[in-house]
Amino acid sequence: xxxxxxxxxxxxxxxxxxxxxxxxxxxxxxxxxxxxxxxxxxxxxxxxxxxxxxxxxxxxxxxxxxxxxxxxxxxxxxxxxxxxxxxxxxxxxxxxxxxxxxxxxxxxxxxxxxxxxxxxxxxxxxxxxxxxxxxxxxxxxxxxxxxxxxxxxxxxxxxxxxxxxxxxxxxxxxxxxxxxxxxxxxxxxxxxxxxxxxxxxxxxxxxxxxxxxxxxxxxxxxxxxxxxxxxxxxxxxxxxxxxxxxxxxxxx
Length: 252
Ligand SMILES: NC(=O)c1ccc[n+]([C@@H]2O[C@H](COP(=O)([O-])OP(=O)(O)OC[C@H]3O[C@@H](n4cnc5c(N)ncnc54)[C@H](O)[C@@H]3O)[C@@H](O)[C@H]2O)c1
Known about the structure:
Bound molecules: nicotinamide-adenine-dinucleotide
Strand order of the largest sheet: 3-2-1-4-5-6-7
Protein name: Short-chain dehydrogenase/reductase SDR
InterPro entries: KR_dom, NAD(P)-bd_dom_sf, Sc_DH/Rdtase_CS, SDR_fam
Keywords: NAD, Oxidoreductase, Plasmid
GO molecular function: oxidoreductase activity
Domain Ketoreductase: 6-176
């Protein structure tokens, strides 16, 4: 894939899908910025990738996102790609406690999920776009989910946020395509990462979650990373405003 020498930012790069994407980008010759709220994890991932830079950032903090991109400008002088991937679920926001019915969801949990999963993507976009425009264009990929298309009970906040990211992706694609910025999303199915490990391996849920997946396995983080890499590369030069389902056929 055409990624050699490209400067590419990955948020949520310290774990799961983001970390796998950083590693594949590094192998493909990109200069990778590994950004995560967990700074030690970002630095650990970056340490194994030649020329990579590990950065601590909370995507909820718009000023921190701007400072991160300013750091990229100072260090690399340009930004060719961004994978806006950091995200949480209701389970994260509740610290592992059971998710109540939606009418009983604490407001702070609703706000926390929306602030990371939707506002966080916007905060990154508004910081990234000026440097991408100054770089002559670029490719943006946002991480959505099955829940940008369908829902499950007790996942209202996550579903609303991911539907929002799908719309935001289209808005950016329409507005900035003319200026050389493409914006797409990858829609992972059920992926085996620390975010889901507690649920997808539990005897209570495993078979239920596998049943609707035609390929009869959960995705690996690398399965999703490969889809993201293609959307970040020049191989997908005419793809704009689309979502690529990497879900083993679940949505079909
Ligand atoms: N795992 C799945 O089954 C699955 C399915 C569909 C979509 N997704 C989406 O994929 C993305 C990555 O998820 P994952 O499964 O790799 O999870 P993960 O928990 O393994 O990794 C997410 C990373 O994001 C970081 N992060 C969380 N909040 C942050 C913040 N405010 N600022 C900066 N970094 C922050 C975490 O520290 C973590 O390193 C998320 O957007 C998630 O919604 C995951």
